[in-house]
């Protein structure tokens, strides 16, 4: 696969703050990165971190930042409000009615490193910084579905969860 060098620069920021939208990777990163279920990340006793979702390379090419009506981005974090009503989807799986999806205010994917920043009215400022194990990811995409493929730190509303281990799921 080709490495895509996509960058959008928006505004200015304080030193060290993530800005813009950069994607530069040769690897196929598409999929859902699911935190280790034995160590759930729960915020305020209510919100559970469900996944970090990465789009396909085409999603990065077509991404246009700043669309206030967008419900999808090629990098986003998803949470479940475990106090909200549960519903059943068309495939018979349950889901939570209130499931905040954090779209990026900025992201940087370069090689094996991922950085993300976004905001949500319920959760506040959300950041993620992590490192992919590209060899483990390739194995997970093949015949080792339970491999740890990503480790990183998540901050939600000022609280930081360190060294979260993630598996990979390719979707339905």
Keywords:
12-stranded mixed β-sheet; two-stranded antiparallel sheet; 172 residues; disordered N terminus; mainly beta; 2 helices
- The average pLDDT score comes to 89
Determine the fraction of residues in helical runs and give it as a percent range.
Answer: under 10%
Q: Give the overall silhouette.
A: globular
Provide the domain count. Answer: 1
Sheet with the most strands, sense and barrel status: 12 strands, mixed
Fraction of residues in β-strands = over 45%
Distance between the termini: 23 Å
List the total number of helices. 2
Taken in chain order, the helices and strands follow as EEEEEHEEEEEEEHEE
Q: How many individual β-strands?
A: 14
Alpha-beta content class: mainly beta
Low-confidence stretches: 1-15
| Radius of gyration over C-alpha positions, nearest whole angstrom | 16 Å
């Amino acid at each position: 696969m080709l490495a895509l060098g996509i960058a959008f620069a928006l505004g200015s920021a304080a030193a060290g703050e993530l800005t813009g939208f950069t994607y530069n990777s040769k690897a196929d990163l598409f999929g859902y990165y699911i935190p280790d279920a034995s160590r759930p990340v729960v915020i305020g006793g209510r919100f559970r971190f469900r996944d970090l979702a990465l789009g396909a390379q085409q999603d990065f090419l077509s991404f246009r930042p700043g669309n206030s009506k967008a419900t999808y981005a090629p990098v986003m974090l998803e949470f479940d409000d475990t106090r909200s009503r549960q519903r059943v989807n068309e495939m018979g799986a349950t889901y939570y009615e209130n499931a905040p999806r954090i779209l990026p205010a900025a992201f940087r994917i370069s090689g094996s490193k991922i950085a993300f920043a976004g905001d949500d009215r319920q959760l506040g400022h959300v950041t993620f910084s992590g490192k992919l194990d590209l060899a483990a990811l390739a194995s997970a995409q093949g015949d080792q579905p339970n491999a740890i493929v990503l480790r990183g730190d998540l901050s939600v509303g000022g609280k930081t969860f360190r060294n979260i281990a993630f598996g990979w799921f390719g979707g339905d």
